[in-house]
Amino acid sequence: MSTSSAPGDPMTPIYHTQEGDPRILAQLIIGGLGEGCESLYDYEKGGHHPVHLEDLLGPQNRYRVIHKLGKGGFANVWLCRDTQDGPSRYVALKILMADYSQEDCPELRALELNNLLKHDSKGRQHVCLPLDNFRIEGPNGSHLCFVYPVLGPCASSRPAKFEYSKFSLRRFALQATQAVAALHEIGLCHGDLSASNILLRTIRYNELSEDELIETLGQPRREEVRTMGGDQHQNPSAPQYLVYPIDSTEMESKFLTGDACITDLGESFEVQEPPENLGIPISYRAPELLLGGKPGRGCDLWALGCILFEIRMGRQLFGTWDDDTGEYLHTVAMTLGKYPEPFWSNWEDRSDTLEEEADEQGRVVLTAEVLGRIVGHDTHSADGLAIEPRSLLEAIAPALFYDAAYKPRNPRKQASKISDEEAKLFADLLEKLLAYEPERRLSAQEASEHEWFKFSDEEQQETIVVPEQTNDQSMDIEQQTGVDEQPASAEEPELEVKAQEASPGGRITNQAAPSPMEIEQKPSEIEEGRRRMRRHSI
Asked: What SS3 string covers 189-226?
């Protein structure tokens, strides 16, 4: 579909028939830009079901809509009260677009997981399983609906009011790994694994009245949908207003458990029947999917490696501008080395930035033209290349290599700091998950047994206080950490990498790395530096 509107101007949906000829079914506008809401253009035949607050949905009008939890590419998720199960029980109701609600919808497979997942599997309780499902009929078609427990924010957006420790981040990462292992054990691939699909479990919401819950989450914010003349519209395909999703990063810590839960199995597939393509975001997509390879377990494992980095370090490993494929392949190659054949030859644009031959260490080499564009620009290294990590260890702990002492974004939250001992263990795990050849990647089960998850630094005192278990549906399963917690000991001194300790070239070599210490880093500065380099090299 297409539009003709400038920012701030009324937005007029242009709909298309199956033949591709545009015709205006309705001229509707929203009161503001609606940034953060689903597109108004998705309310047509085959699209979203129009939902309003206080709507009653499901069999016997069981679920009453009270807020919005999120929106996605093919579904909206609403916070509902289950009116037939006690004084208060809150659920997440996911309503798929009509075009995605076919009988072969992959998300229907999630209904079978209750029986397929082994009850003694450590990862079972970290997979979000549906509580109920049904269909609703509406002006835009027939829609599959799935009822899930209410979950918290995702791994890629640490809540502002939630304190993390390094131990709790490793524990969270382990649970995500165990969940992937549980899926792979029954021959199922997630297919859309990203940090946004790994959420924190919630607790105690069912103790709140509806008014108390709304006070906690905030009143729903709306954007009115009107005709071009400002009147109430009569188009049954569109709602009378759009609702902004809640900001889950503002959830209070007392409602969060610190436990991981993998969601969104809508792209899942059986290992023996892989699809042609996957819709996984570029930043988590295995390179073989872009270079002639096929989907499989290896795609989940690559994405898992990227997610573990993001959970532990608080930033993306291979972030890109606007999901640019060329930039992504370049960034991966700069960090992990030259792609093996046939992937290297299948990358048609490689010569834009890289020489054909790697150096003696297997690292890719920038072309002379790119080097010439970089020289003279502000970087953290005398040779002009240090801003782009050349190994996973360098990406994890850049202060081990550069003379800059990066400070955490919030001095009170030191979770992104990492000792050189932990950094080396973490790099070893990621190297085995991010092997270029899918068959060489560590399995999820093997990864869950890696020494990094058992690492015991001197900061073992949990900053997360897990509330007592209640009757909340989302906590009706046994908590399993899988990590042996050690007693806290004396706090080790915090040091910084000083400029005079660096080598003459402005770098600290692996051999000259400081003794075990805490490396302070500011993710935003590191990422901004990388972006500066990319703008001149691509």
From this structure: ECCCCCHHHEEEEECCHHHCCHHHHHHHHCCCCEEEEE
